[in-house]
Design goal:
- One of its GO terms (molecular function) is DNA-binding transcription factor activity.
- Keywords: DNA-binding, Transcription, Transcription regulation.
- It comes from Pluralibacter gergoviae.
- Pfam families: DeoRC, HTH_DeoR.
- The protein starts with 5 loop residues before the first helix and ends in a 7-residue tail after the last strand.
- Strand 5, helix 7 and strand 6 form a beta-alpha-beta unit.
- The chain folds into two domains: 56 residues, Arc Repressor Mutant, subunit A; 162 residues, Rossmann fold (3-Layer(aba) Sandwich), CATH 3.40.50.1360.
- It is elongated, with a radius of gyration of 20 Å.
- The chain is α/β, with parallel strands linked by helices.
- Helix 2 crosses helix 3, helix 5 crosses helix 6 and helix 6 runs parallel beside helix 7.
- The chain is built from nine helices and 14 strands.
- It is 38% helix and 23% strand.
- The strands form four sheets. The chain has a six-stranded parallel sheet with strand order 6-5-4-9-12-14, with helices on both faces. A three-stranded antiparallel sheet has the order 1-3-2.
Amino acid sequence: MSRYNKEERVKRIIERVSRESHVTISELADHFSVSHMTIRRDIEELQKQGMIKVVFGGKIVKNFIETSPPYNNKARENTAYKKNVALKAWHFLQPGQVVYMDGGTTIKELAFRVDMPLTVLTNDISTASILNENQYVKVILCPGELVRESLSAYSTETLRFLSDHSCDIAFIGADGFSKEYGAMTTSQAKADCKWMAAHRAAKSILLLDHTKENVFCNYKIADLDFFSEVIIDDNALIL
């Protein structure tokens, strides 16, 4: 018989998911000495309250996002971490390269640092605007429907364009990541475009800050080892 009543059990489920980033129904049933059905009912109630989410293969997680926050909100958050990542990424640039810069505010910080002749393909209008002011850079803007919250193009036209172009380096962003599940994002169109850009590049570099660690999304881009390099700020747990 379980030593916890329902209220205590639910509280401890939330505590454990927060502490361990993800757990399974079987693990919780064993821990609380109750049936899988009992845990499923607890999980269903917590999901309705928006406190947890069941994702890939029945994993239960707390940190989950359905859609990306508005671009202007993201641009004001965690700027020190993003600048740290951008500085690390800058060291991979060499004059004359053809570079793809994905959408996102971390990659925008990299755009500010460009100080050499490059040809840059980008689907992000903010990054394109920054680079357009740079006398060293030729900018090629990817076609496609603009996603309002990200100010980037992710659509069938974007995917087709990326499949037809290769580059020396592709810098890719993500909305969340974990060591087990890889890089994730909030739509299939975004996942497809990010994967294609990385696939077509001689070197693909994933840019992340630690605040996205163990944040889960519905759509997987790729495992972390799919990328040539993964650059994370110095506060990440998986370094």
